């Protein structure tokens, strides 16, 4: 495990993910991040600004064919209009975006997502993105994310978290100078992207109410299929709200244990691995 990825677990339910004994040590970098997250974000944004401009001029970027992308999301009654604003930030002149959303109603997250996906012919899309309604995105998000995910041949991908972002997994935090990384784990949300090569194996999603544990089965699927999965650092997102504050954590843990008992999972410590990183194109 790379010490740069170490971060304490959000709560005791992390035992579900293979962690036993005392929590990991907190590195100096994470102590600074917790105290001055906005400063870290500013410095990393400035370091990436010139490189982002270079990506937009790169021959491989301009040569990427137009993609068709379906982005679906659930909008909470607590944040009316939020998802429409996020979808507006995802608009692109280079790719064809299709957006769909619905309310949560009295159904689980993944069941609702399946309802949205069933409205569309997925064979006509190159990517499917599942999107939460409490994220903030950088400029050029769609164009850069799509290009870098395809450059790295990622089949399941997500944007990195900013330092200010709420997350439970240290490996999902943005890495300094990295454009993207192949990792042993991709979190289910707040934004998860699925390449068309994964559709037959991933969709429909299991009808889990909370979705915990599903992302621990994806690494096993990736190994079986020979896929790369990973994180795009160049366009980090900010998750605006704390994790697991609006639902019953114990119920989520119980559901996850049942799902993973049937489908298997990788130990929590394996989730923290960065297998490869790209610092340049």
Q: Overall mean pLDDT score? A: 86
Distance between the termini: 26 Å
Strand segment count: 9
Binned strand content: 15-25%
Main beta-sheet annotation: 9 strands, mixed
Helix fraction by DSSP (H/I, runs of at least 4): 25-40%
Oligomer: single chain
Low-confidence stretches: 1-24
The geometry reads as globular
Question: Count the helices. How many?
Answer: 9
Structural class: alpha/beta
Give the SSE string: HHHEHEHEEHEEEHHEHE
Radius of gyration computed on alpha carbons? 18 Å
Structure report:
This protein is α/β, with parallel strands linked by helices. The protein contains 9 helices and 9 strands. The chain has helices at residues 28-35, 37-57, 59-63, 82-90, 109-118, 141-151, 199-202, 218-225, 249-263, and strands at residues 68-75, 96-103, 127-131, 135-136, 154-161, 180-183, 191-195, 228-239, 274-278. Strands 1, 2, 3, 4, 5, 6, 7, 8 and 9 form a 9-stranded mixed β-sheet that branches. Strand 1 (68-75), helix 4 and strand 2 form a beta-alpha-beta unit. Helix 1 packs across helix 2. It is globular. It starts with 27 loop residues before the first helix and ends with a strand.
């Amino acid at each position: 495990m790379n010490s740069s990825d170490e971060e304490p677990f959000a709560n005791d339910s992390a035992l579900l993910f293979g962690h036993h004994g005392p929590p990991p040590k907190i590195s100096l970098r994470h102590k600074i991040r917790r105290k001055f997250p906005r400063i870290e974000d500013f410095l990393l944004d400035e370091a990436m600004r010139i490189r982002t401009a270079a990506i937009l001029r790169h021959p491989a970027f301009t040569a990427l064919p137009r993609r068709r992308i379906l982005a679906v999301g659930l909008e909470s009654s607590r944040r009316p209009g939020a998802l429409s604003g996020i979808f507006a930030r995802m608009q692109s002149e280079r790719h064809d975006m299709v957006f769909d959303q619905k309310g949560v109603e009295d159904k689980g997250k993944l069941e609702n997502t399946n309802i949205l996906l069933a409205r569309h012919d997925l064979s006509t899309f190159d990517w499917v993105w599942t999107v939460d309604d409490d994220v903030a995105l950088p400029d050029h998000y769609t164009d850069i994310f799509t290009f870098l995910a395809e450059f790295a041949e990622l089949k399941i991908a997500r944007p990195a978290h900013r330092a200010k972002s709420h997350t439970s997994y240290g490996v999902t935090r943005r890495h300094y100078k990295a454009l993207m990384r192949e990792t042993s784990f991709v979190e289910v949300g707040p934004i998860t992207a699925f390449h068309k090569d994964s559709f037959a194996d991933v969709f429909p999603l299991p009808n889990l109410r909370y979705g915990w544990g599903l992302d621990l089965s994806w690494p096993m699927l990736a190994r079986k299929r020979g896929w790369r999965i990973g994180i795009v650092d160049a366009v980090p997102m900010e998750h605006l709200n704390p994790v697991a504050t609006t639902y019953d954590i114990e119920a989520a843990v119980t559901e996850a244990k049942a799902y993973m008992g049937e489908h298997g999972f990788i130990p929590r410590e394996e989730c923290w691995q960065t297998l490869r990183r790209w610092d340049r194109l």
